[in-house]
């Protein structure tokens, strides 16, 4: 017989994940705790609703960088695990990614095939002796540490139960690089690839260029130490492009498209085509005050202090006959 707390030959030995490690399956021993997550074989799992995954990791007293890959597909609906297959709603999902009890980043996912990557660092002090690292994914309406201003601002504009059916594709644990600072400007799509910006997710992670902002909002996530944007200021260059022609009879499609382009070009010449920014809200602390804006033609430059402890939610105004875009982000002051 064994005494309480003692090990026997019948006890299962749990091997921790040893960084650097890429975890792509839910059938591994290191995945020790799950809550409202159904394990997968080719993915870590799929969330029924807001939930968590807990991994046993051998950090050995070192800090760790954690990369979390999330995505949506046809099964990303409420009640998918009970056989419900209603189509996805048109509204985007706004979800929190938390770890060790703290909000790390937020993700905005829009559409049927959206992918996003979250990146955050854990200090050695945040990793317990047993090595259990928890990754929680919560809807924006749940949990503490989210300001009521944010929840009121997005009410009716984002999908309820935004975590329902969300795929947890991969979790990576690795040591933070010694220096990863890149002073160059990032284009809009690369901003989302590196998790600085979340504006709906990327259908193709290898694309580069301008990021279209169709959700009417986007998230600016905390900047990691010694990475792009960690100089203290971020300048986001926002633009507009003519709204593409809708699905109208083919004989009128070209005329409609050309008319939209001419109207947009006229607004640019008049200097009134720049996309409006209505509010900037700290997810944790609430309204961040009047944003620092400069406009020229169809360009708005929004300058923010680099977020470190809480994401910002940027709420856009309407662009008549045009679609707002994220052209680029630069570290430093605006430079029109």
What descriptive keywords fit this protein?
disordered N terminus, six-stranded antiparallel β-sheet, 2 domains, 3 helices, 336 residues, nine-stranded antiparallel β-sheet, mainly beta, Jelly Rolls
Explain the overall architecture.
- This protein has 336 residues and is mainly beta.
- The chain has two domains: 17-77 and 88-176, Sandwich (Jelly Rolls); 184-246 and 259-330, no CATH class.
- It contains three helices and 20 strands.
- Strands 1, 2, 3, 4, 5, 6, 7, 8 and 9 form a nine-stranded antiparallel β-sheet that branches. Strands 10, 12, 14, 17, 18 and 20 form a six-stranded antiparallel β-sheet that branches. Strands 11-13-19-15-16 form a five-stranded antiparallel β-sheet.
- Strand 5 (93-99) and strand 6 form a beta hairpin.
- The chain is globular.
- The termini are far apart.
Summarize the structure.
This protein has 336 residues and is mainly beta. The protein folds into 2 domains: 17-77 and 88-176, Jelly Rolls; 184-246 and 259-330, no CATH class.
The share of residues in extended strands comes to 35-45%
What Rg is obtained from the alpha carbons, in whole angstroms?
22 Å
- CATH class designation of the largest domain: Mainly Beta
How many separate domains make up the residues?
A: 2
Reading the helices and strands in chain order gives EEEEEEEEHEEHEEEEHEEEEEE
The CATH topology label of the largest domain is Jelly Rolls
What is the overall pLDDT average? 87
Multimerization state: single chain
Helix fraction?
A: under 10%
The assigned CATH architecture of the largest domain is Sandwich
Q: Compute the separation of the termini in Å.
A: 76 Å
The largest β sheet comes out as: 9 strands, antiparallel
Report the structural category: mainly beta
Shape: globular
Total number of helices? 3
Low-confidence stretches: 1-8, 266-271
User: What's the number of extended β-strand segments?
Assistant: 20
């Amino acid at each position: 017989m064994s005494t309480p707390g003692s090990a026997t030959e019948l006890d299962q030995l749990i091997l921790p994940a040893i960084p650097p490690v890429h975890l792509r399956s839910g059938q591994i021993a290191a995945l020790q705790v799950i809550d409202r997550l159904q394990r997968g074989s080719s993915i870590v799992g799929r969330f029924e609703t807001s939930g968590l995954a807990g991994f046993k990791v051998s950090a050995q007293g070192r800090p760790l960088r954690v990369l979390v890959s999330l995505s949506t597909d046809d099964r990303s609906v409420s009640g998918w695990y009970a056989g419900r297959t209603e189509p996805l709603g048109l509204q985007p999902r706004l979800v929190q990614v938390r770890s060790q009890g703290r909000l790390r980043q937020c993700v905005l996912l829009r559409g049927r095939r959206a992918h996003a990557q979250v990146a955050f660092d854990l200090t050695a002090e945040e990793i317990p002796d047993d090595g259990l690292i928890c990754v929680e994914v919560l809807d924006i309406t749940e949990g503490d540490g989210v300001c009521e201003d944010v929840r009121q601002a997005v009410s009716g504009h984002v999908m309820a139960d935004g975590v329902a059916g969300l795929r947890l594709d991969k979790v990576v644990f690795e040591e933070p690089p010694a220096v990863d600072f890149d002073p160059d400007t990032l284009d809009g799509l690369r901003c989302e690839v590196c998790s600085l910006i979340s504006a709906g997710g990327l259908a193709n992670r290898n694309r580069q260029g301008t990021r279209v902002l169709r959700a009417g909002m986007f998230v600016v996530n905390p900047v990691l130490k010694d990475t792009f944007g960690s100089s203290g200021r971020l300048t986001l260059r926002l633009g507009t492009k003519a709204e593409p022609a809708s699905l109208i009879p083919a004989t009128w499609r070209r005329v409609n498209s050309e008319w939209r382009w001419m109207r947009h070009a006229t607004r640019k010449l008049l200097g009134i085509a720049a996309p409006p920014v209505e509010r900037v809200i700290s997810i944790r602390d609430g309204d961040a005050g009047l944003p620092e804006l400069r406009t020229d033609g169809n360009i708005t430059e929004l300058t923010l202090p680099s977020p470190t402890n809480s994401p910002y939610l940027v709420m856009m105004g309407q662009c008549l006959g045009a679609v707002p875009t994220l052209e680029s982000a630069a570290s430093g002051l605006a430079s029109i």
